[in-house]
Amino acid sequence: MKISILIPVNNYDIVALVHSMKDGMLKVPEFCEILIGDDGSSPEYREKYRKLEGEGIRLVVSEKNIGRAAIRNRLALDASGDYLLFIDADAMLPGTAEAYLKKWLPYIGKHKVICGGVLYHNIPPDNPDLMLRWKYGRYREQKKASERNRHPHVSFSTFNFMIEKSIITRIRFNEELKQYGHEDTLLGYQLKKAGIGIFHIDNGLMHEGLESNREFLNKTKLGIENLSLLYDKVTDKKAFSELVKLLKTYNKLKTLKLDIILSWIFIHYRERMEIRLDSPKVSLWLFNFYKLSMFCTFRAIHVRRNIFSLT
User: Fold this and answer.
1) Domain segments of the chain as ranges
2) Residue 147 contacts by C-beta under 8 Å, 6 or more apart in sequence?
3) Percent of the chain with pLDDT over 90
4) What is the 3-state secondary structure (H, E, C) of 120-187?
5) Which band of pLDDT confidence, cut at 50, 70 and 90, is reported for residue 135?
């Protein structure tokens, strides 16, 4: 049984991560290679990745940025392993690579898709401009495996997961998704529709790449817009909605015709909400309301656009 480590990256320093994983591979021989997927990085960063190449480390280059889904698909096709371990570029080991890699081994062969989880530092960042991303990650994304396994497809994340190669070459990342957001939601939906289970373990990686408050709000906008577009495309909207708490809440609001009110609130109070969210004292309740009201607004736009496209 061979396992490939796949790291998609765009203009991010992964030198320490790759060196650590390489050291771990020497002690855990089931891991046979590291593939770095350079998705249109600048010459400066590409040179850093090229210097990492050597025994057991290969670089897969896309000259232009083709998107998170497409670069992951390319890595999966190029990998030689029977199982593929996908790691986001802004991940960092909380301990030794040897301990991290060994933790996967008991579950291989028993489960086709395994999620390791995401970790955040317990202490808040000194920089208040990073507070929103840290607080959301620490209190919404970081969960024990026992909790994630209650609703395994809902909790699926592509940040740190392993999958049988035969599955990911059949159920590929959707390359129509060019902008940021909800690639993992869609893949989790596809796996569930195909009857493929997901098993969660406590083998988390630390999320180091915290965005500033404004950057995270911009990414949130892209993700919410993507979610609305995906909602129009999926064939089983009920099954898709079961995977996203925001969608379930939206459908209840729509039944009561309250989605129109939330759209009005978002249009008129968006700037005030963003000012509150871009501050040291972040309210996750306000952030959830901000996302929900934004989604109601995008639904109104996309539904109207779809109606006009049919006429």
Assistant:
1) 3-210, 216-310
2) 155
3) 86
4) CCCCCCCCHHHHHHHHHHHHHHCCCHHHHCCCCCCCCCCCEEEEEHHHHCCCCCCCCCCCCCCHHHHH
5) very high
Q: Which two tokens stand for residue 10?
A: 């765009």
Angle between helices 245-255 and 284-310 (to 10 degrees): 70
The model's pTM is 0.93
Q: DSSP of 261-293, one letter per residue?
A: HHHHHHHHHHHHHHHHHSSSS--HHHHHHHHHH
DSSP conformational letter for 29: T
Q: Mean pLDDT throughout 158-187?
A: 87
Helix (H) or strand (E) holding 206: strand 205-207
Backbone angles phi, psi at 150, to 5 degrees: -65, -35
The CB density around residue 235, as the number of other CB atoms within 10 Å, is 7
Note the Cα 139 to chain centre separation in Å. Answer: 16
The span from the CA of 216 to the CA of 180, in Å, is: 11
* Cα–Cα distance, 213 to 273 (Å, whole number): 12
Cα–Cα distance measured from residue 78 to residue 244, given in angstroms and rounded to the nearest whole number:
32
User: Can you give the pLDDT at residue 280?
Assistant: 86
Please name the amino acid found at residue 149. N
**Domain 3-210 is of which CATH architecture?**
Alpha-Beta Complex (3.90)
